[in-house]
Design goal:
By secondary structure, this protein is α/β, with parallel strands linked by helices. It is 40% helix and 25% strand. The strands form four sheets. The chain has a five-stranded mixed beta sheet. It has a five-stranded mixed beta sheet with strand order 13-12-11-14-15. A three-stranded antiparallel beta sheet has the order 4-6-5. Bound molecules: adenosine-5'-triphosphate and magnesium ion (MG).
Length: 336
């Protein structure tokens, strides 16, 4: 990473995820990551509220009488007011059911990438694999984001999220293998050979699906399920209550769907004559891959599934939540 950092001036990696947006750029000899939760909360406007928000350095946006707290602050406020945040994205893409989606995603992105310092500054942003049921929706999503970053004055480039994981994690393997990001709205995967993508796909069963489904069968709110899941889920231990039991069941479903789709895409790819000469590594990343036991559960299920691509090992990224942004940054630097 040091050699990359040394030439990363004016390059930004941007992970535009359903749950969070993260930028990585070079700062001196180091890489600096900044994150905002990809959510917002409308608030009734008053002068007093605005002053308090200003004094407390809360991120907010005001336009035409509308007043929104966004990013990391939105979650804190939602907790205080016992309200649900609203989200600019769902299932990996701009949320078509959210009227304020475009405005707020722009505000959050602008806060993270800031202004370019030269005409040559480049942002490489992550995009998901095309959803199987609506492949053309990705075109809109990608073009909107590209257009917005260009308006800010950046050169742009996009990278498939699975491929970003390969850039972040498989340098020693010459960027050959399978990268998988298990996020909030989607699981995204890519098989690359010497950095060239051979097959990529996405599923929409990921973290949000777990929260919603567990909430639905246990009578809890998805927000509370998410909190429990993030703070205490351990997939190596037997479930000790109803919520944990449901979390295990829906984690199995996420992994099952991911492996079914992986095997399907890989068999299509190998029938199109991309025969690999040696077994390849699989790297797992993303927030949903974080609970203890996730890697083992995935590896066991993969082994039992007759994957058409020979796999040498399944490993977990050393920093699962940063891997996509790091991969996008590396791709931006390689573009120099
Ligand atoms: N420690 C944890 N244990 C379990 N789940 C977690 C943990 N930390 C985060 N998550 C879950 O990971 C998901 C967010 O992951 P991530 O930040 O990789 O997604 P994203 O990139 O924003 O979304 P996507 O790639 O799907 O568009 C959320 O569902 C969150 O609840
Ligand atoms: Mg992601």
């Amino acid at each position: 990473m040091e050699s990359v950092a040394a030439s990363g001036e004016g390059r930004i990696g941007l992970d535009i995820g359903t749950s969070k947006i993260m930028s990585i750029r070079q700062s001196g000899n180091q890489l600096k990551a900044s994150t905002e939760v990809n959510a917002f909360l409308p608030l009734p406007y008053s002068r007093i509220t605005e002053n308090i928000l200003l004094q407390n350095k809360v991120h907010y946006y005001q336009n035409n009488g509308h007043f929104f707290v966004y990013g990391n602050s939105a979650e804190k406020f939602a907790g205080l007011f016992n309200a649900e945040t609203r989200r600019p994205m769902s299932g990996g893409l701009i949320n078509p059911d959210e009227p304020a989606a475009l405005t707020l995603i722009k505000v959050i992105i602008k806060g993270l990438v800031k202004k370019p310092k030269s005409d040559d500054d480049l942002v490489c942003f992550s995009v998901p694999g095309a959803p199987a049921d609506a492949p053309h929706d990705l075109i809109y999503h990608e073009q909107l984001l590209k257009g917005y970053l260009s308006e800010l004055g950046f050169k742009t480039k996009s990278i498939n999220e699975g491929q970003a994981i390969i850039f972040a994690e498989l340098e020693k393997e010459n960027f050959t293998g399978i990268g998988i990001s298990c996020g909030g709205g989607m699981c995204n995967a890519c098989l690359a050979y010497l950095s060239v993508p051979v097959a990529s796909f996405s599923t929409t069963k990921a973290g949000d699906f777990i929260d919603k489904s567990v909430g639905s069968v246990t009578g809890e709110s998805a927000t509370r399920v998410k909190l429990i899941k993030e703070q205490s889920l351990d997939l190596t231990k037997d479930p000790k209550d109803k919520i944990e039991e449901a979390l295990h069941i829906y984690y199995d479903e996420v992994i099952g769907e991911l492996i079914r789709t992986l095997n399907d895409s890989m068999s299509k790819a190998s029938s199109e004559s991309h025969q690999l000469d040696a077994p390849v590594p699989v790297v797992l990343a993303g927030g949903t891959a974080q609970p203890a036991g996730f890697r083992d559960k995935f590896a066991k299920a993969l082994e039992a599934s007759n994957c058409p691509v020979p796999v040498s090992e399944v490993r977990l990224s050393s920093n699962p939540s940063q891997a996509t942004a790091r991969g996008a940054f590396i791709a931006a630097v390689y573009d120099s």
